[in-house]
Amino acid sequence: MMKNFKILIAGNMVNQGYITAKELRKKGYHVDLLTEENSHITADPAYLEPELKNNYPEWIKFFNKKKSSWKLQIIKLMRKYDLIHSWVEFSIFAQFCGKPFVVNTQGSDFRELSNSKTIRGYLLNRSYKKTKLIIYNQPDFWNVNKKILNQKGFFIPIIWDDKNWPKYERRKENEKLTIFHPTNLDFRLKKNQILFEGFQKFIKQFPNTHLVIVDRGIDSKKTHKIIKELDLENHTEFVTGPLNKTEMAKFYINSDIVADQFTIGSMGSIALESMIYEKPLITYIDKEVHKKSYGSIPPLISAKSPSEIFEGLLQLKDKNERMRIGKELNTWFKKYHSTKKISDQIELVYNSFEKGLDTKSILNELKSNLSS
Questions:
Q1: Residues with Cβ < 8 Å from 188, sequence gap 6 or more?
Q2: Stronger pLDDT, 33 or 172, i.e. the higher one
Q3: How many CB atoms within 10 Å of residue 215?
Q4: Banded pLDDT at 48 (limits 50, 70, 90)
Q5: Band of the pLDDT at 170, cuts 50, 70, 90?
Q6: Residues in CB range of 296: below 8 A, 6 or more apart
Q7: Are 18 and 30 in contact (CB under 8 A)?
Q8: Is 22 helix (H, G, I), strand (E, B) or coil?
Q9: What is the DSSP letter of 159?
Q10: Spatial CB neighbours of 95, under 8 Å, sequence gap ≥ 6
Q11: Nearest 5°: phi and psi at 237?
């Protein structure tokens, strides 16, 4: 790739834009990042690298939503680049900048917003029609819109920082089986309540069990209420969230089991982080689309009902089983979510756009590399 081919990664959901830009810059590419000023903690590069706080490199560009002209400023900035790698909703702006752009879907932008009868939903769908390529990171997206992904979709797993997570000595062996639930408390999107109901059933037989909940999200009050209604207060600890990377690492290390979400059908950042720390994971995935996307199914415990959570906890009551699953998940993570492997795939995407290839040729090149 020519040194003067300039790329802008627009959007930094859970720091995936930052990790991507940093990896491609190591390879010698001119890649900048656009992210929101004073963003959510997990979208701030300083979440991964605290030393960056108020000392960001010049290649990270910021926009401020408090300014009335922020949308226009984004489009103007995009026009200075040769290619826009637009995450989530940023393709809404990219389609009007007059430059080639890649769509990178990630969460509710594809699952919900694109299917909504709103102006944003219309513009998002319009961008899908205008782009040559849609990168999707979540296997369950295949169930959302097979038609568009068949035409121009390519699966690239979530890129994740697999090297710089803190290492600590575990305090000691837990006196109680400890379950860590750091997931955003949103009963509609995450179905946290399913975990609480399954946990209630489990402690009736195995009361020496402890649930740690990170207290964050729109259903925080509902969570406190249901914990009280289910008579789980003596078995539950609330930790004020959101937590920073160091705090999260300590809880991962000192927990026995990690429980994530129970409705989406794909894995997010919490699932991947738990794998880094070799922790057994209970969450819900659609196994069929994972097999299609990855070529294999992660060896986690998939659950989407209280009874399935109970059965999963029953299996993980055994320490040797927890260790076995945790190690297998860590091996699986390294195979499919290697930072280098994924950045190599994104490099191919950028090279294809620099060559001016059409959609069919881009997909053929990506598939050819995947099979080699």
A1: none
A2: 33
A3: 14
A4: confident
A5: confident
A6: 290, 332, 336
A7: no
A8: helix
A9: P
A10: 101, 123, 126, 127, 130, 131
A11: -125, 130
pLDDT digits 0-9 by tens, 51-89: 888 799 999 999 999 999 999 999 999 999 999 999 999
CA distance 259 to 254: 14
pLDDT band at 333 (very low <50, low <70, confident <90, very high): very high
* Helices 339-354 and 16-26, axial angle in degrees (round to 10): 80
List the structure tokens of 208.
Answer: 């020496």
**Coil, helix or strand for 35?**
strand
Per-residue pLDDT, 372: 56
Q: How far is CA 3 from CA 31, 262, 352, 364, in A?
A: 10, 45, 15, 25
The candidate with the shortest Cα–Cα distance to 35, out of 9, 55, 58, 54, is: 9
100 φψ region: left (φ > 0), alpha (ψ -120 to 50), beta (else): beta
348 token code pair = 């191919």
- Given a contact cutoff of 8 angstroms between Cβ atoms, the answer to whether 136 and 114 are in contact is no
Q: Which of 173, 349, 185, 353 is nearest to 270 (CA)?
A: 185
Q: Are 151 and 359 in contact (CB under 8 A)?
A: yes
Answer whether residue 288 shows pLDDT above 60: yes
Contact (CB, 8 A) for 133 and 359: yes
Tens of pLDDT, residue by residue over 226-264, are 999 999 999 999 999 999 889 999 999 999 999 999 999
Closest CA to 197 of 167, 223, 216, 234: 223
Tokens found for residue 257: 């089991």
Q: Averaged over 324-336, what is the pLDDT?
A: 96
